[in-house]
Amino acid sequence: MIIFGLEKMYFFMKLFILRHGQAVNATQNVKDFDKQLAEDGILQAIKIGDFLKEIEINQIICSSAIRASETEAIVNEFLKVDDVIYVDELYLASSEVIKNTICNLATEQNILYIGHNFGISDFVSELSGQTINMTTCMLVELDILVDNWELLSNDTGVLNQITEPNQL
Q1: CATH number, domain with residue 78
Q2: Cα–Cα distance, 164 to 140 (Å, whole number)
Q3: How far apart are CA 165 and CA 27, in angstroms?
Q4: pLDDT over 60 at 151, yes or no
Q5: Could you tell me the pTM of the whole model?
Q6: Taking all residues of the chain, what is their mean pLDDT, rounded to a whole number?
Q7: Which domain range does residue 137 map to?
Q8: Cα–Cα distance measured from residue 58 to residue 80, given in angstroms and rounded to the nearest whole number
Q9: Is residue 76 one of the residues assigned to a domain?
Q10: For residue 129, is it within any domain?
């Protein structure tokens, strides 16, 4: 629900979108899905987790790829969110798959989504109406203009903040 006051607009849902931390370089013996976080990626996730620790996040929806789930585990050490959902189809998912997954699985007020490029950049850009190219462990905070996740669609997000680990 959106309430319009004389000078204020109140949003009742927030979507935090986080690209996974930097992964190790590809090797012939490791599938892309199984790539782990590099040392820099671990440090990025720690910085973002520390940044988020005072923010109320009620649910996490995450790609089940190793680098995304490792990012989630590190960030969630700070957040302590019990409601975490891993989805195989979010690995290198398109914007449409990401949107549909959130529409179908999000049940809480403030959601953190962790995923991959290029779908994640497209998703943020479509929601906000702004072109945003997400770098590793970039966090985007959107205020959501609808009161039900099933109604999430293009231009229903208002960009609130972009945070990169190198800024912290």
Answers
A1: 3.40.50.1240
A2: 9
A3: 26
A4: yes
A5: 0.93
A6: 93
A7: 14-167
A8: 9
A9: yes
A10: yes
Number of domains in the chain: 1
* Residues above pLDDT 70, as percent of the chain: 93
Amino acid at 69: S
Per DSSP bridges, beta strands 139-144 and 110-115 are unpaired
Q: Is the peptide bond before 118 cis (omega within 30 degrees of 0)?
A: yes
Q: Rounded CA gap, 96 and 124, in Å?
A: 11
Residue 97 DSSP class: H
Q: Of all helices (H) and strands (E), which one includes residue 144?
A: strand 139-144
Tell me, yes or no, whether 148 lies in a domain: yes
The answer to whether 63 and 114 are in contact (CB under 8 A) is yes
Q: Measure CA of the first residue to CA of the last residue in the chain; give whole Å.
A: 33
Q: 8 in a domain, yes or no?
A: no
pLDDT tens-digit readout, 116-146: 999 999 999 999 999 999 999 999 999 999 9
Q: How confident is the model over 64-75, as pLDDT tens digits?
A: 999 999 999 999
